[in-house]
């Protein structure tokens, strides 16, 4: 048998010790790594995007749901095990009451001064007050009641059903009352045709909506801010529009008939004036003709008179004409004398 020296035994013992120590180190490192991985699985972060804010509430097995502040927009913090977070919109929101696809509400019905019903479509833009203290009170008093929140971020591209119910409860009655109050000051035709009334509705909504909503809110916090209304032109019923169209058509026909009658009368008057002037001109022409004929007759008479003059009488003038034409105007007489023109005598 080989002889084992004390030196060889010590070396083996030392090698075995080193291997055991290395194994222990590896085991410790494994445990630490496992603990780190477990801690990483347990410790997570929570973040809010630029257009959202989260209300932070305590949770867990033994912790009460006390308020722990907020996760403000564009920020991140460590998510505490058992705690809960409720996200609300920090950007501008719109309450649409046009009644179309994607609208939040139907158009509001109003009654005019002359007791006709019209529909008023439009929209109101606003922002939720995301001051952490105010937002927490909003969550406690209203948001939590109607489930008007999301439990994770990046979901506000679509409207939450609870948020929709909450808006209908607080916004719809206030808008309905405000628009109807303005409408009662005007007739339905004015509401339908006058664009300045629509501008008045916008101003009134912007000025009074916050107050009317606040009257229904618990406490004195202004949960909603920055109202900006965009009211469209009120719409009467189809029957009223048709009646107005018929009325305007009748008015246009009457105006056309009146214009034609006036034109016809003016034409007839012009014709009568022209005919009167023509008759007047004809009469004047006849008078002028008669006067000319009379002047000619007078001239002819004067000429004839100058021709007869030398003969002393018309009879002698005619006798002379007869003689010139080879006639004997004188019948035989006895005991008389034959007369000759006074200018000479016969031998």
Write a concise keyword list for the protein shown above:
Tetrahydropterin Synthase, Chain A, 347 residues, alpha+beta, three-stranded antiparallel beta sheet, 53% helix, rod-shaped, 11 strands
Please explain how this structure is put together.
The chain is of the alpha+beta class. The chain has a domain at 68-236: 2-Layer Sandwich (Tetrahydropterin Synthase, Chain A), CATH 3.30.479.30. The protein contains seven helices and eleven strands. It has helices at residues 6-42, 132-146, 161-183, 188-193, 195-214, 238-308, 314-324, and strands at residues 44-48, 52-57, 67-71, 75-79, 84-89, 93-96, 108-111, 117-120, 122-128, 224-231, 235-236. Strands 3-2-5 form a three-stranded antiparallel β-sheet, with helices on one face. Helix 3 crosses helix 5. The chain is rod-shaped. It holds the Pfam family Band_7. This is Band 7 domain-containing protein. Residues 262-309 form a coiled coil. InterPro entries: Band_7.
